[in-house]
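lol ok so funny story. i was supposed to be doing the assay writeup but got distracted and ended up predicting the structure for this chain instead. priorities right. anyway since i did it might as well share w the group, maybe its usefull for someone
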Amino acid sequence: MTDYKAPVRDMVFVRDEVFDFPGLWQGLPGCEEATSDVVNAILEAIAVFCEEELAPLSLSGDQEGCTWTESGVATPSGFKEAYQHYAEAGWPSLTSPVEYGGQGLPPSMESILNEFAGGANWSWSMYPFLAKGARTTLLAHGEQHVVDRFLPKMVAGEWTGTMCLTEAHCGSDLGMLRTKAEPQADGTYAITGSKIFISAGEHDMAENIVHVVIARLPDAPPGTKGISLFLVPKKLPDDNGGLADNGVTCGSIEHKMGIHGNATCVINFDNATGYLMGEVNRGLNCMFTFMNNARIGTAIQGIAHGERALQAATRYARERLQMRAPRGPVNPDGPADPIIVHPDVRRMLLTIKALTEGSRLLIHYLSTYVDIDKLSPDEQARKQADDRLALLTPIAKGFITEAGFESANHGLQVFGGHGYISEWGMEQNVRDARIAMIYEGTNGIQAIDLLGRKILASQGKLLAGFTAEVKAWCEAESDSDIKAGYVGEIAQLVGEWEQLTQDIGARALQDPAEVGAASFDYMMYSGYIVLAYLWLRAAEVAEAKLAAGSPEKDFYQAKLETARFYFDRILPRTKTLAATIASGAESLMTMDATRFVVGLEVE
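and the output, tada:
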């Protein structure tokens, strides 16, 4: 069962009713075309494409997978045709600059496209979404003649793109990279080396693939201070529109746990012509343009898998008959009741719903700041937006992907034994979701980034800016009963959040390991509080709609009931996390490495 319905109604609720994107865009230049009518028409068109073209290819793409030969990689049946339709419809150009053939819509529109396509078929969606990151990086850091040569084709979807970081001997420790960049007389660079785990690195869906590659110049200093960034196309374009091989080949594709429809490649560069982007030895700084874009996109992966789990598991739970409801039969004429009546099934379904819809709130709250950061003429507004993005991006990437995997597992469990069988699509959803916690810096690295590099390094200023917003909202007058019932709990948690942060900082002055010991639990703790704040904002809106007599009673009532479930059943997880954060590093760091498995020899 692979049916998927794009959550259009919930997207409109989140973006228009909770965060008022139409109002936001009125104050941002370049958003004049993004009227409600235009955006809603785009939502509907994206939904139709994803439901009718991408979703049917999800299960077959997983079963068929990609095929490698020396001449290239073949994607699963239907993938290439779907991509052609995607490009013909203009979706790659949605938010790109008009001067390069784009539609010039606000950057946050990408988050809608990412979720709908990803929920329908995550493996397929990675091909165009990585291309978006490459386009953004090229536009931000490429020399004008390189931008002019490559960007229009990428905006049109004729060429795709990738991010090439990892090498066999170095994963997240990019300072160890060995790929070389030799300066050439014409101002280009000869790139030589191998990269692994390159998603969408080779395929048959577009005529050219443009790689964003980090490499080291001959005289570069060691470590991350010696990394430079390059644009390296698979094929070099000439002035007559022709394409020539450029010493870029796919050595193999990985055989992996999930996302079988996406080619995860070993890419070899053999004196390939590359173009420097940004300053020499400042490549990692420039690469964060791509990485931060990808981290938000990976967070959306968590939502995509959660939404797929919610839809499939809810449908199944309404239809599957097993045993009788604990409060009396609800299907007295049948042999048993649908399993949705059972408390434990409801626990799983409501957990999926609360985490997935709450995560959607977080992504589009974050997206408001993406638009402000990119488009606002107000320097102070851009600075605040940049601060929010710095704080919330690692929370979004880490927390939402953890929540997405939890949701995928709950979805499988609702199906019982059938969930373990491939035809239902639930075991695939679990396998596909697992990589999100590893992508773009593992969640442990996201957690260290959040606590160490963002919060403690800013002496708490990034956190204080956000908590001041939450406190102001909590103190604002409101007629909302649900806000009155839960706002005190949020205020108490915000105070605890600030105190825990101070305590970690004090301990870290004595032992640097305290940051790493607390960081993952701190990231999750932070995520639960952020979602509580956003869920209460959403519930306040839903309550007002009901009070105004909205005909969509079921939709808004479900928001109130899900918010109450979140506060009663999920937010209490912060209590355990606060205790583990406070316990410190000692129990983690005491054991000698030789005692983890006694008698185990390490070569």
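The chain has 19 helices and eleven strands. The domain at 289-587 is CATH 1.20.140.10 (Butyryl-CoA Dehydrogenase, subunit A; domain 3).
back to the writeup now i swear
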